[in-house]
Amino acid sequence: MRNLDQLFFRLAESPFRRRFRLDGRDRAYLEEKGLALVVEHAHALIGRRLAPAQPPGDGKQTPFRGHPVFVAQHATGTCCRSCLEKWHGIPRGRALTTEERAHAVAAIERWLRAAGGGASRQGDLFR
Ligand SMILES: [Zn+2]
Fold first, then answer.
1. 48 close to 103: Cβ distance less than 8 angstroms
2. The model's pTM
């Protein structure tokens, strides 16, 4: 498992990862639901779609739009087990530990905070 500061430094150097942005609909969703609830969604999504030893449809389980957590997953390399191995040093082929799940969610939450912080009104959300 890699340190999040190092991870974000590396992500910023990837043209593919750094192109992900929240669109207007994602921002509105975040604003309406609040970060805490969206992070709960992240826990549930990671638990169901990433944590199993052999996640169903691994490599294709994370859509590119439709929920802010999906976007955050692509941006942080927590979208599938290959990316989790490459970006986070967490090997494929076994279930994620509790700590590894928490680490993936922490990366998603950090990205969402940074990505949602741009609009003036969203400052209120992320206090
Ligand atoms: Zn992936």
1. no
2. 0.90
